[in-house]
Design goal:
The structure is a homodimer. Chain A is an alpha/beta fold. Helices cover 33% and strands 18% of the residues of chain A. In chain A, helix 1 crosses helix 11 and helix 8 packs across helix 9. The interface between A and B is large, with 75 and 75 residues.
């Protein structure tokens, strides 16, 4: 019999983050963990001693299948930044966490999240060294943004890319319906990394011309040049569809969406809420080029559209959770599971483990050479990279016409 | 051998309008039509003699299955209003149409559309009586808005409702993730009729609490009262999700979205493009109640999300097309196919035919008694009406990770 396990979810949700949770839970139980606790709202909830015994909630194989298909973080998430371990007052925070873990007889700690969340694993691991604790700390990668270092890609990205590719295709079909001039601007998530926006290019194929231009946040965005390009394209083509990242910035460093008057807010990690980019550009096109425009924000659905997930992605999310448990049980700590692509064609991928210090807080952006020279599209290399990640589906379990989810009622707490 | 058939699509697209097109095409071929022409961009394209021989494009059973699953109008659509048959200059327009039909040896004319499009069938039929033409004119109902008179519901509505119910559920899950106060406003299509917005209530069930409030365009919208209600709910609940119709109006008759500064335009039928309602309300909530807000426009996806359609809907869309052919071949003209609900539980539905004069240009809104007394939700009767229409799925044909469509390349023209 192993000791107890605790697992938490952190940062923005994805359509498959619960598949990683299930991967941790099931592998831990299968490998003899006594108890598997779930932190409610990540480390922030743990500090308030909010946790559950997951066996009381994931009771059978059907629950496991439902949870894999449930969007958003089942346990709730947080955006909570632990203090540096040597900062003033830090000791009280860490002592509190380690005391709670000790009380729960936790020997293995898993945290499913992105680069901000890996900062938590790094600090907890460092503190464990400082105090000589034997608890093992492992990170499980997750983010639709695909901006984690070292790993080939992140669980969550493939499903978001599949959703973006699918609905871009549908919107392109829709845009051609009236046979009149129309410019559609799609606003896609991704603050600093263009992985999601680039996925709009997946729509291009035998049965779809794909978007006409794609603008990633990796390159400065020149509004005047953009207007010229749109003008040139709309002279040759009725329906123009353009994908832009919510995070595109002017050459002076301001976000394009700052040119609008939307209320915005800043989260705990100092990230701005961005939106309004597509609307702003669509209004400019309507005013200056005098054509009909549409602005479509793909919105939160990019991270929660469980009704169309990639089976490759959801399987890898599960595997990443399982691999973290295996590694921790074998004595690893302070590491994150990475996905290692063995081959693109045929697609083969395994897991590996890597020092979390070299991953936390680092953002991996799209390489310059995967963006065309003129900065208006992604290259075939980009597509070849993404395509294997969106393959196959995991059919939703439909009940009375809608996808069924595993419901965690936080009123129970 | 029958004479020739022509079919057109008109008005806003739906996820299943091509299923009706296939229903007309296949039934006409099966029943011996010599040729089945498709108008490109409806009556507007026909006036420019733009049409295709559909047999050259729908070549086999796989094409039929792909076309059923292809969003937007395969033949292209239009928003074109024919002049009244006695208006000045009308004769030239009608003579042109009837000459083209005569040249093509068309004996049966089918038009798939909503109440504006039924106006076209009505006028063409009336003109056929005037000139003693034998051509049969039949309407096939279509609109996501579900606002056609006489018919129990319209093909296109069930799939849009299923999409809205599904993503509302996903967004509700997503909204609970951080466990902090947040108000999400969903903006749903429907200018004057709340059928689509009401479908957000489908999300409520054993595994989801559903939206907190739903505002239909049938009732005047009081912004101050709305703010009070939101304030009251957000005091008792972390994540508040509210669905509003894009068409909600102030008591003075202005659209709520007119309080914003969005560029808008007016289409041929005098309908305004509406958007910005959710953003406006979210900004007000953020400013006045000081909580985090999100505005999510469900956007065009409501009418083109073929990746999650209702099988009931897509089957009925096909049947409506087939029934129109059968009726016309039996000599009917100036009629529209209606859907007639025989029973809700178990759900049974047949088709019927009805005088198009009593359907064209009439909008059917949600009955007052299907909206709660305080105007903030729909009643169980509403849900019982919609639920059967969203049942079961028609699996997309996935190729290389994305739904496959039947591509009509208008460069071929």
């Amino acid at each position: 019999m192993r000791g107890n396990v605790i697992v938490g979810q952190s940062g923005g949700p994805t359509a498959v983050i619960n598949s990683s949770l299930v991967g941790v839970f099931k592998t831990a139980k299968d490998r003899g963990a006594a108890k598997v606790y779930g932190m409610l709202h990540g480390i922030q909830g743990l500090l308030e001693e909010r946790y559950v015994d997951l066996s009381e909630h994931i009771r059978n194989d059907l629950d496991i299948e439902l949870l894999k298909r449930t969007p958003s973080a089942y346990l709730g998430s947080c955006r909570y930044k632990l203090p540096g371990i040597h900062e003033q007052g830090a000791q009280a925070v860490y002592d509190k966490i380690f005391n709670i873990l000790r009380k729960l007889e936790v020997e293995y700690f898993f945290y499913i999240g992105g680069n901000d969340s890996m900062d938590t694993i790094k600090k907890l691991y460092d503190y464990s060294l400082l105090i000589g604790s034997d608890i093992k700390f492992m990170g499980v990668p997750k983010t639709i943004d695909n901006d984690l270092a070292v790993t080939d890609h992140t669980p969550g990205y493939g499903s978001a890319a599949k959703y973006i590719g699918s609905i871009t295709k549908e919107v392109i079909r829709d845009g051609r319906v009236y046979g009149q001039k129309q410019v559609t601007i799609l606003e896609i998530m991704g603050r600093n990394a263009g992985w999601l926006t680039g996925a709009a290019a997946l729509a291009r194929g035998e049965d779809c011309e794909g978007p006409d231009m794609i603008f990633l946040p990796e390159l400065p965005f020149d509004v005047d040049k953009f207007m010229e390009r749109v003008d040139a394209i709309q002279k040759t083509k009725e329906s123009v569809v353009i994908a832009v990242s919510e995070g595109i910035k002017l050459p002076d460093g301001r976000y394009v969406c700052e040119l609008t008057d939307n209320v915005d807010s800043i989260d705990t990690f100092g990230h701005r809420q961005l939106s309004g980019t597509a609307r702003y550009l669509a209004n400019r096109v309507a005013r200056e080029l005098g054509c009909k425009t549409r602005a479509i924000e793909f919105s939160s659905l990019q991270r929660c559209a469980s009704h169309i997930v990639s089976r490759v992605d959801i399987t890898e999310a599960f595997q990443a959770g399982g691999a973290a448990v295996k590694a921790a049980f074998e004595g690893e700590s302070g590491k994150m599971i990475t996905l290692k692509r063995v081959s693109s064609d045929p697609y083969q991928c395994t897991t590996d483990i890597y020092d979390v210090h070299k991953i936390a807080n680092i953002e991996k952006t799209v390489p310059r050479e995967w963006i065309t020279d003129d900065g208006t599209y992604v290259t075939p290399e980009f597509i070849n990279y993404v395509r294997p990640l969106i393959q196959a589906e995991l059919t939703a379990i439909m009940v009375d016409g809608l996808p069924r989810h595993l419901y965690y009622d936080n009123k129970q707490e």
